[in-house]
Give the backbone structure.
Amino acid sequence: MEVDGFVSPHSTLESPAVDRRVTGAIAATGFGILGGSVLDATGGLVGSFSPRVMGEPDFVSTLHRTTTEPSACAEPEIDYEGLPQGAPSSTHMLAGAVAGIMEHCLMYPIDCVKTRMQSLHPEPGARYRNVMDALQQIVRTEGVWRPIRGVNVLAVGAGPAHALYFACYEKIKFSLSDAIHPGANSHFANGVAGCAATVLHDAIMNPAEVVKQRVQMFNSPYRGVMDCMASLLRQEGAAAFYRSYTTQLTMNVPFQALHFMTYEYLQELLNPHRQYNPSSHVVSGALAGALAAAATTPLDVCKTLLNTQEAQAVHVIQAGAAAVAPGPGSRYISGLGEAFRTVYRTGGVPAFFKGVQARVIYQMPSTAISWSVYEFFKNVITKRQHEKRLRGERDGDK
């Protein structure tokens, strides 16, 4: 990663007459090694600091446009990781919001299957062999629109949640990486930034997750999202929307730390010059999501139990409490410890991995969509900001 004013010892300048400028400012993204582009006084691209390796894909631009005469038709190439100086956080927030909404909406049917497959006591009509069998049964017996019931509440929550998520992640990672290891990518900074961003993200998404999973369950008693929200407030109180918040954080903090560190590591291998490369973003995002999803499935099962308050599981808790101390037991399962004991008492160790196939199948394309859409919109927004800045400088020169 290059910092402002840092020049690689391997850099070369084509023409001594050119007023050389280094656009090595760290992007607010901070995703690692930049292209190291050198611009002339008119904004034309002269060269690159990054050496070519034999057989390596041409991730960086080759030397061209060395003339100092401005051209009306020549558009400067920029490294989208190198955001213009003073680029607002709204760049990341807008890209993150779009990425989050698309990620959750496109993969919502698989998420519905995952919720059902994590049921500890599935009803006879909701016992599925695999993901495809589940989707076919749901559509055949409950209607074609049933797999996407409740998607509206998730879309409403995903926009602001992911906007804050990516903006917070980029800001903290940039600041922390610069403090810990100036001029280079820091896996520790990536992990810490991911954890901090998760706290904000889950604070917004947790109520949406509760409503969404209640609506997704087989034979859900709610007519729709608004009916579910009103019923929860009336019967269980506002605390019901955050009953699984600590469990979700306990799951998502290691999930996101592992996810971001894996993504950044794979980007270093597949896209070392950090150019806009959709295929590398898709592959890195998919593999990072799959690994993190599989590792945190036991916690996701506990989170689903806390959100849905499955009737049979609650009965198990009440029966156990009555055997130890006769009297009125707790109506709800609360806390990670109680959820963990209930899952183990219900199905042993295998119960903690219920729905792992659906979770991995959901997370692989989900994280791939999220990263590829985020990087695409970040690239588009960055180019527009860069072009505006250049137009402003040229108008000022006139």
Q: What stands out?
A: The longest helix spans residues 356-397. The first strand starts at residue 21 and ends at 22. The radius of gyration is 25 Å. Confidence is low (pLDDT under 50) at residues 1-86, 324-328.
